Structure formats: C-alpha cells, structure tokens
Amino acid sequence: MKKQLLILLTLSSFATKAQSYSGYFHDNYAGVQSVLFNPASIADSRFKTDINLFSVSSAVSNDLYGVKLFDVFKDGYDFDSQSKMNPSNANNALINLDIMGPSFMFNIAPKHTLALFTRARSVTNLRDVNGNLVDQVKDGLDQSSDFNYILGSPNGASHAWGELGLSYAAVLYQNGQHFLKGGITVKYLQGVGNAYIRGNNVKAEFEEDAVIPENSELTTSGELTIGGSQDWETNEDYEFDINSSGVGFDFGFVYEWRPDYEKYDLSKAKPADNNFRDLNKYKLRFGLSVTDIGSINYKKSKQDIYNINRTVTEDMIDNADDLYDFLNDNYTKTSTAKGTKTNLPTALHADVDWNIHNKFYLNLNGDISMVSNTKLNGTSIANRVSLAPRYESRWFSFYVPVTWMEYSGTQVGTGLRVGTFFVGSGSIVSNLVSKESKAADFYVGLKIPVYQKKFKDRDQDGVIDKQDSCKKVAGPIENKGCPWPDTDGDKVFDKDDACADVAGPVENKGCPWKDTDGDTLLDNVDACPTVAGPVENKGCPWPDTDGDTVLDKDDACPDVAGLVENKGCPVLDTDKDGVADNVDDCPLVAGPAENKGCPVVNKATLAQLQVEAKSIFFTTGKATLSDAKKVETSGRLDAIKEILKNYPNAKFAVYGHTDNVGNAKANQKLSEERAKVIMDALIEKGVNPANLTSQGFGSTKPVKSNKTAAGRAENRRTEIVYLGNF
C-alpha cells in the first residue's frame, strides 16, 4: 500500500515517445507506413501497391533515470541503486506502442492513390513530476527521513485504441519544376481503454517518528483528479466497450522541386519508361502535415476528485487494503460519470528531404505537439528534431537518424530495409556506447512491396515486351511489335503494297509502272500517260498551236497559220509586186507576175547598158583597163552593177569585139580577155556570178566599116547582152 501511495504521489510512470519508425518513414520506399505521418506522401509513389503484413514500433524515454541499457536485462540488476538519477522539480517519462496490422496502398489512377490500414496504439504521458521526491522515497517512507516537497501539478494520462484508416492522396499541381500533392486520412477510432490522473497544487510533508515508526505522519494538501474509461474502483477487470468510438483525421501536403523536369516530360515518354514512375524526380522535397485530429467518446467513463488536505499516519497507510480504500477512507471525494472525450495526440510534422546525389539523401524532420501539457486526460507527443542521412534503392535502404528529443536529449540510431523486411532503432547506436541512456526504441516489419518499374523493350521498338509479339525484332505497334512483311522485296510493306506479289517502286504503291498509251514511255516518266507521244516530247503529242499542220517544233511561226513549204509561216510579198515571195523569183525586187515577179529587161535598160559598156576603156592592144580613164571606167562599172542587181533572175553576157587590124587570132584572144576582165570586175563589185557570162568575137561582128578610122573605132567595143531569165 505504501508503494501505491508513492506511485500516486510521484506519478512515476511512462508516456509516449514522439514518433514511430524513426528514420524509416521518410524513405521513398516506406510505402503504406509513410501515410501514418503524411497522407500526401503516397501519391506519385514508387509502388504499384504496398502490402504491410505486420509491423510494430515501441519506444521508452524519460529525463529522470539514466542507465546502461543492456545491463538492465542482466540477472540481479538493481534499477534503484545502479541507475543514475537526474531529479528536477519537473521530470517527464514517455512510452509508446504502435502496431500496424494488415494494410495496403495502391494507385487507382496515375495521379490518385488510396491506402487502407489497421493500427493498434497505446499512448501514456507523464509530465511535471517532482523527481526529487521520487529520489527521496525510492526505498519507501519507512526508509526516508523527513522531507517537505511542493509537487505542483503533475499530470499523467494513458490511452489505448485501434484505428481503421482510409487515405486518399492526389497530385494537385504540376507545372515545370513545381510539383505539389496533397492527402487526407479519415480514421474510424475504436477505444480500448483510458486512465488519467492530475494533481493541483499538491504538497507533501513527511515527519518521521524514530521511536514509534507507525506514528510517522504524512501531511498532504491540494487536489487530486483520477478518471478512466470505466469505474476502476468497483471493477478492476477490464471491460471492452464497442460503443466507445470516434472519428479522426490526418491531412498533409508535399511539395517537390524538380529542376530537371524536362527529363521527365510525359509527352516524350516511351511506353517502356512507364511515365518515369520508378524514378526519383525531385532535388528537394518539403512535407507538412497534421495528424491525429479527433477524439474517442468513452460513455462509461468515471472521474473522481479528491481533496487531499489532511495528515495521515504510516499506520493508516499500512492498514488500507488498496489505494481506493485509502483515498476513500481518508479524503473527501466528488464523483461524476457523464462520459469523457479523450483526445488523440494531435501533432504538426514537417520534413525537408534533399537528394544529394543519385541514391544518397539527407532528411531533416521534426514534430511539434499541438496538445497542452496541462490538459486533463491529454495525450501528446514530445517535441523532436531529427537529421537522417540515408542511402535508398528499390530493394535496400540504410539510414542513420540523429535525433534531439524533448526530455531525453540527443540520440543516434540506425535502420535498414532489405526487400520485404525492415528493422531499426532511433537510439541503438547511442545506447551501445552510453552509460546513461534515457531512451530506447525499436521497430520491425514485414511487407510485400510491388514496385513501379521500367518495362522491358528488348528490341527498342516502342512496344513493351509483354505486348510485343516479336520481342527481339523491332516492329510497329500497329502490328503488335512485329515488322510488316514485304513479300515481293520491293521495300513496300504488304499493307501498303497494291501489288504485294510483284515488285514495284514505292511511288507507285509497290506496283510496276505501266505504259497505258503504248508509246514506249512508262507512265512514271510519261507526261501524257493516256495519250501516245514521241519520246523526245516526254510521251506527249507535239502541239500544232496555229493548226496549220506544221508542228510547233518545226513551225517558224507557231502562233500564225502558214504553209508547210514556208515552215508554217504565212506567205509574204516583200517587194509588193503582187507575187508571193514563195513563187517570186525576185522577192526583193518588184516585177510582173508573168515574169515570176522579176522586173522585165526592156530596150531602154539594154540601151543604157550599151552606153555604159562602150565607155569602158582599155590600154591599147591590151586586156587591162586604162589607167588614164580609171575613174570614169569605175563609174561605168558601178552603173552597170546597179542595173544588173535589179534583175536577179536575168542572164547577161559580156561580149568583147575588135577591129580587123592585126592578126585575127590575136584579136580573138584579146576580145575574150577584155570581156572576161569586165565580167570579173562586175563580180568583184557584187554582181552574182550566176548572172554573168563572157565571150569574145574578135573582129567577126563589126558594126561599122573597118575601112575608116571612125568605123574601126566603133568596132572596138564591149557589150552587155540580155540572154533571158533563169
């Protein structure tokens, strides 16, 4: 009984630690466990689904006792004498038990995820206990000397309950390097049991009677409140009440900074990439959440308030059967039984996760209690900050959390995840080396993870192997990843080949070219494939634009109808003499039609020719033109030339004559030579040689009598004679 009273006065119990699964739950592969601390964390996760079979986390912490932890489990260890105490006016002690039963999470859509979990929890808090009194009475009142302590308002609560939670998380915003997701959890709460105690301005004074120990006196003052989910005074056996239930909520947000977001552009993702779901895409991740909003209504709860202003003897303490008998026999009590709403340990959680390089991360996280330490029947967490470097991969993670914990100080732990198994402790390292450990925790779990992964595409044709009918040969998705056949080998796939069994060019849909118009040019190079035409004109008929039967290629006048014999041009009359050029022997000189368009050589013309010809002088006895008459002779020749060119179709002859003086043969030769000299001179001046001939007659054709000097002079002459037309 004395021991019970000491417990009552000192409330030397334990209470909840800050969090479960220290170091593990910020791992990107924590899966369904991560939803317990931030519901948003399961969105856009690395899992298709994650199934927790069983996991448990437990922790103990205080700031009064320090021990060499592993010595505690040795036989003969005396806690009171071998532990190191650190008493103060407000000591605290903590304990937590968190069991997660069958639970799972799964993606219902690329940006939406659900989780369903079962969980059993036990939370006990002890705050503001006067550790000096605990140290004073640890061996019992009968072993204590006089003491006088102000205990103040120590406060303790213990609560156990179960949860059935449903979480929903989704991607809320995604733009460039900014990515935000949010989540909420709704929990059905089933109460298991609740008990609490709180003092109000409690003081304790002990005066020892060394002669008669049983007359030693304990004087107390103040007020003591004791309550619970059932009437523990009348029934010490636990009674489960299905009607003790409630509803709880968690919510949270996660922001990710993704500076390399272009690498994960879904519009550029191949099917094998599986939308990059298996990859870490952030450089920095920020999380913020609030958990355990809500309460459980214990309808059968009872609360007793004792006024403990009285002095009792050690004999009175020894004679009481139990604590309730002692309190009821010696103090005034006020009782109520109206039901109690017991809160959850509401807390604010924050974390920053830095992807240092590849699979190496550094996480900074912390918890802040949102429940007042002075709240009656209030359960809460201890404030905490933790820094945890880690290495993580799909099937293995290792982390070393370094934590500052309210009450118990700094502790170092470690943990790992291997495949389906994970185990760890937030304090194991410090407990191995410290002789004054004030905290201990551990967790262990077994799960079935089903990860997101990059799909296999061995032939890299964009069709993943599980959908590829030809896994080792590239082919289009339309043909189930198999190459299209090409039966005729013309590089036109059968699906596009209009002549699948006969080779043909791509541009003709795999068919050989035809010669539709039969002009020896294949249709692909025939500019007129349906009308026969010569090769030289690309298979098209030659055009006859002016319709004169002379094809344009041969028509000198393709736009004006003309005669074939005039190369397709209309007939001209250049000299305007009424005789078309095509029948005009002299198209440049006007002449009558009866003379084929050439001018007629008349008597006047002939007479003029004779006059000009007679005035051409030679050196005496020679066939050379006279130098003395050179200018005059040249003028006469020019005049003859101008006359002759007007008759392009006329034939003229130059005749030479002499007198009868001298040798007849010499005269003949001289006449011939002189006629030729004149003919050559005219040709040299531009007369057509075809229009001229020359002939000498010697003295055979006199025009006057050779008997006189005047007559002989007349007979020495040259003549231009008209012979007719060509």
Automatic annotation (TrEMBL):
Annotated protein name in UniProt: Flagellar motor protein MotB
Lineage: Bacteria, Pseudomonadati, Bacteroidota, Flavobacteriia, Flavobacteriales
Coiled coil regions, renumbered to chain: none
Keyword Signal appears in the UniProt entry: yes
Signal peptide residue numbers: 1-18
A Pfam family: TSP_3
Compartment list: Cell outer membrane
InterPro entries: Bact_OuterMem_StrucFunc, DUF5723, OMP_bac, OmpA-like, OMPA-like_CS, OmpA-like_sf, Thrombospondin_3-like_rpt, TSP_type-3_rpt
Alphabetized PROSITE patterns for the sequence: OMPA_1, OMPA_2
Keywords from the UniProt entry: Cell outer membrane, Cell projection, Cilium, Flagellum, Membrane, Signal
Ranges of residues in domain OmpA-like: 605-726
Primary localization class, coarse: membrane
